[in-house]
Design goal:
Distance between the termini of chain B: 74 Å
Radius of gyration of chain A: 25 Å
Order of helices and strands of chain B: HHHHHHHHHHHHHHHHHHHHHHHHHHHH
CATH topology of the largest domain in chain A: Neuraminidase
Structural class of chain B: mainly alpha
Helix content of chain B: 55-70%
Oligomer: heterodimer
Distance between the termini of chain A: 99 Å
Structural class of chain A: mainly beta
Number of strands of chain A: 35
Shape of chain A: globular
Strand content of chain B: under 5%
Helix content of chain A: 10-25%
Chain lengths: 491, 500
């Protein structure tokens, strides 16, 4: 009997070893269907060296999963388990080897003891690299008027590692946002803290200073910032943001501004540069310097009695010249896209850093696209002035908060496509002809578990060239000691 | 013989402590248990445990949250608290008698002092159980005998103990110094160094003040416990919310007649209970009314104020507003914990609105808890069948009651909001009662008179409610009605306006 037990155990162990060494399921039943996986990585284009595109099988009732990836330029990767979990180094090696090529993915799934092999799908590896270190973003509960446990984080996009930049724990009870680096370079950062004891952080080469950007004339502190390419000026909107709430089952929140103007802060002198063209009764919002720094794109809408007339908020996309040497605005405003005339709202213009494209949001109304269900991304060719909808990436829900990678070949955006509430981050590539790839969700080690358990929404994503260094203890000291440099208006 | 008798005395004393503590919580303050329970959601997962252990004091936090989850069933919560307090008393007694701190016989009643002090301290509603749990753990550590020869081992023990227990480990140092003499004071310096090193290298997102004094002993960051004890009015409000949570409408009405706390929160609870019993029209002004906020409070950034209003919204059929108030309440929990009560209601709102994907997220969380799991599993199954949701006695009804038109909520026009809700479904008697009540609170007597016909037609009253009769008399007599509850309310509001 004892011999029998030992023999049986040996048989089981050897059988397990045999299966483990076999490298995959034997004689699976083949089906013509594509596998339904989460996230949907079928046919996406990725940069080499990105974090592994781990995925789960959509149907949770499976016994196991076996995935083999073969590169068109060589290399192979194998993963077996409850979900496809690839080794980071092996994944990097495979994608590096297949840059400009494609990966063929074979998925087999075991259900009730029977293996089933789905139709292969392809992941394209772009020839364009994404060499930025990672992403920065704010994580916030998708609530209403209370921010809760807010935090600004950074994520190494080549691995799964996330690091806090600034969280609520170090500045309790403060709402902060609008963290902005200079064209992905974190040697210049600005960040706004709203409400009582608020202020604006200007960090240059690791040195923090907090400034009070509210003056008697400008009414509010600056927000929605954007750095000038030279790293000396920051364009900001000064506004008063509010929310109202719907009674229906669709869109939950309408965000509106009671007033809004655009200004530029000279961070060397703490002077605000104003223009009568940008301090009007109209609402000027979301400024962004052009790639050459010679102009500012922004949106502008006519004043309405909000919230009652929230449907009348239609933003035009405008441009005004800016002379960095003199620190002066131009004297005329160009209207690139007319909101009221087209019955649309054009907001959140973001020029690519190579000066080729201008990406912006289009929605039926409003000046805060992340809260608009119908907000979509559009692209303007700055050579021709022609615009088109980015139907390759848009969804029926809000797509917004886009930003460019350092080399302007990739962009990240926030989308509510999955559930209409919890914003998630997607990447897509764009080539020199403006051809845009199918977007892919920010990879996670175990995506289904991660995103199901994630109770935060992502917003304001941006690429960062290197890891952001912010001394949060110093931030605490300056915020709570109320150390602020008061800005003044430039004569 | 004397030793034997002393042992029985000791045990008897501990039993008395246990009985006293149990009765204190279970009979005296079950609502305090419910209050604490609703501001956390203990998850039975490894991730949750590791998340707690990620910060100093994590083991104490985890242990306290483990206990607090049982407050959901008051007698279980009271029993676990009893065990904790008895442990505290026994550890103190042991240290006093065996730890070498005192010589000779120490009065046993001395061991009751910390018990009484902590019980009193817990009267501050923001004191978290992490603090007593950490104290017990620190005392338990101090009970491990350590000879002078091996006192150096504290070099290793202190960093680990600080990480698991938090700054309560200072109690351990005090006991050790008393046991081993003043030469052991080096350990105090070492602990300060450990805390500073943790601050500099391991806790970049925490202020020094909290690293030194505790990250999660107190719910409000950068603040400390008050020796406020059990403030009568505060605990009456907590009891009212507890009764609302448990739908004890009769009990609310009864208590409201005996003691009133003149706040909008109290008015919200009482009015909701009256409305549930269809007595709002009759008796509303028999009780204290805080003003226009007596039915629904405006948004307030704290973790309690909006709860009765959220409950009223839910029962009225204002599902989005219920979800919003619950969401903002949950996000106002300053130690960033989830709330089982809020999460459950948020999930319910999402189910009523057909937002099943986001509801599934909330249910996934609740499924990992002990006391909300059963409900979450049922709700998850329910969501898979739209017909069952429509037929559900609560969710199906709310789908009929909620607004069919999409417009923007306006707190300043709450009377119109209630009116539209009633027009939306004329079976919604509660909305009609709230509509009329809000007009009375605002002093809109013209509107009140205008809609009296609607009340007669749709209110379902056999006769005009006493409260409305009183108002009509006030209108006819231009307020000169002696002993009229509504006239008194109007006079009070007029005085308040004049004082402003």
């Amino acid at each position: 009997m004892r011999k029998f037990i030992i023999f049986s155990l040996q048989f089981i162990v050897y059988s397990l070893l045999l299966v483990a060494c076999s490298g995959g399921p034997k004689n699976p039943m083949k089906t013509e269907q594509l596998p339904v996986i989460y996230p949907d990585y079928i046919g996406v284009t990725i940069p080499a060296d990105i974090a592994p595109l781990n995925f789960n099988f959509a149907d949770e009732q499976i016994d196991g999963m076996d995935v083999v990836i073969k590169g068109s330029k060589g290399g192979e990767l194998h993963a077996q388990g409850n979900y496809a979990d690839f080794d980071i180094d092996d994944w990097h090696a495979l994608t590096e080897q297949n840059q400009g090529g494609e990966l063929t993915v074979t998925v087999c799934v075991e259900k009730d003891g029977q293996w089933e092999q789905y139709q292969n799908f392809t992941i394209f590896v772009s020839k364009d690299r994404l060499d930025d270190w990672g992403l920065t973003y704010r994580r916030i509960k998708p609530g209403y008027e209370v921010g809760g446990d807010i935090g600004i984080y950074q994520r190494d996009i080549h691995t799964f590692d996330e690091y806090a930049i600034l969280t609520e724990t170090v500045v309790p009870g403060r709402c902060f946002n609008c963290h902005t680096a200079n064209r992905t370079n974190p040697n210049r950062i600005t960040l706004q803290m709203r409400g009582e004891g608020g202020g604006t952080l200007i960090q240059k080469d690791g040195q923090q200073k907090w400034v009070e950007t509210k003056t008697d004339i400008t009414q509010a502190a600056g927000s929605y910032s954007y750095w000038h390419p030279d790293g000396d000026y920051v364009a900001m909107a000064v506004n008063s943001v509010h929310q109202s709430f719907y009674t229906g089952t669709g869109q939950r929140i309408e965000v509106y501004h009671r007033f809004s103007d655009v200004e530029v802060l000279d961070t060397r002198t703490n002077e605000l540069i104003l223009s009568p063209l940008l301090f009007t009764d109209d609402l000027e919002i979301f400024p962004a310097f052009s790639a050459d720094g010679k102009s500012i794109y922004y949106s502008s809408s006519k004043p309405c009695r909000v919230p009652a007339e929230y449907e009348k908020v239609k933003c035009s996309l405008c441009r005004i010249a800016f002379d960095a040497k003199k620190g002066q605005f131009g004297e005329t405003v160009d209207t690139l896209l007319n909101g009221p005339a087209t019955d649309q709202s054009y907001v959140l213009a973001r020029p690519s850093y190579d000066g080729r494209w201008l990406m912006y949001c289009v929605s039926s109304r409003g000046n805060f696209p992340v809260s608009q269900d119908d907000a979509d991304l559009w692209l303007m060719d700055l050579k021709t002035g022609e615009s088109r909808e980015l139907s390759e990436v848009n969804s029926p829900k809000s797509d917004s908060f886009h930003n460019w990678s350092g080399n302007s070949r990739w962009f990240v955006f926030a989308s509510k496509r999955e559930d209409g509430m919890y914003t998630k981050l997607y990447f897509a590539s764009i080539d020199d002809q403006g051809k845009v790839s199918k977007p892919f969700l920010l990879p996670q080690r175990n995506p289904r578990k991660y995103y199901l358990e994630m109770m935060d929404a992502y917003n304001c994503p941006d690429f960062t060239k290197t890891k952001v260094e912010l001394d949060a203890h110093e931030t605490y000291r300056q915020v709570f000691d109320n150390i602020r440099e008061q800005v003044k208006i430039k004569e | 013989m004397k030793k034997g008798i002393g042992k029985y005395y000791n045990l008897g004393l501990s039993m008395l402590v246990g009985i006293g503590v149990f009765l204190f919580w279970y009979v005296g303050y079950p609502h305090a248990l419910s209050y604490q329970e609703q501001y956390q959601l203990f998850l039975w997962t490894g991730d949750y445990f590791l998340e707690r252990l990620n910060l100093p004091g994590g083991l104490a936090d985890w242990l306290s949250e483990f206990i607090v989850q049982f407050y959901y069933v008051e007698w279980q919560g009271a029993l676990l608290l009893t065990l904790l307090f008895v442990a505290l008393q026994r550890l103190i007694l042991w240290l006093l008698t065996h730890g070498g701190i005192t010589q000779g016989t120490v009065p046993m009643c001395l061991s009751l002092v910390p018990v009484a002090l902590i019980l009193w301290l817990m009267g501050d509603i923001n004191v978290l159980l992490s603090l007593p749990a950490a104290i017990v753990l620190a005392l338990a550590l101090a009970c491990i005998r350590l000879s002078k020869r091996f006192s150096w081992i504290d070099v290793l023990i202190l960093p680990v103990a600080y990480w698991l227990i938090g700054p309560a480990v200072w109690i351990y140092i005090v006991v050790r110094v008393l046991q081993l003499g003043w030469k052991h004071l080096w350990s105090a310096g070492w602990l300060v160094a450990v805390q500073l090193m943790a601050y500099a290298w391991l806790l970049p997102q925490w202020p020094l003040q909290q690293v030194m004094t505790g990250l999660n002993y107190y719910r409000i960051p950068l603040q400390y416990p008050q020796w406020s004890g059990y403030n009568k009015d505060m605990y009456e409000l907590i009891r009212m919310d507890y009764l609302v949570r448990n739908e004890c409408w009769d009990e609310i009405e009864k208590r409201a007649g005996e003691y009133q706390v003149k706040t909008a929160f109290w008015s919200n609870c009482v009015n909701l209970a009256l409305a549930e019993k269809r007595l709002l029209a009759d008796r509303m002004f028999d009780f204290y009314q805080s003003g226009e906020d007596a039915l629904i409070m405006p948004r307030t950034r704290d973790l309690t104020s909006m709860l009765p209003s959220a409950e009223a919204f839910w029962r009225l059929g204002m599902v989005n507003s219920a979800q919003r108030y619950m969401f903002d309440t949950q996000e106002s929990i300053l130690n960033a914990r989830k709330s089982g009560r809020c999460t459950k209601r948020i999930a319910e709102c999402m189910i009523v609105n057909g937002h099943y994907q986001t509801a599934a997220k909330q249910l996934n969380l609740l499924k990992k808890s002990l006391f909300y799991r059963g409900w979450a599993v049922e709700a998850e199954a329910l969501m898979k069948d739209e017909a069952k949701v429509n037929a559900h006695p609560v969710y199906g009804k709310l789908r009929q009651l909620r607004y069919k038109e999409n417009f923007l909520y306006s707190y300043d026009e709450m009377d119109k909001m209630f009116g539209l809700l009633f027009l939306n479904n004329q079976e919604n008697k509660m909305a009609l009662d709230y509509f009329m009540a809000q007009m009375l609170l605002k002093g809109n007597l013209q509107g009140f008179q205008q809609y009296m016909g609607t009340v007669q037609r749709y209110g379902g009253y056999r006769q005009m409610p006493f409260g409305y009769q009183d108002v009509m008399r006030c209108i006819q007599m231009q307020g000169r009605v002696p002993d009229s509850p509504y006239a008194k309310y109007v006079q009070r509001m007029t005085r308040r306006e004049a004082e402003r």
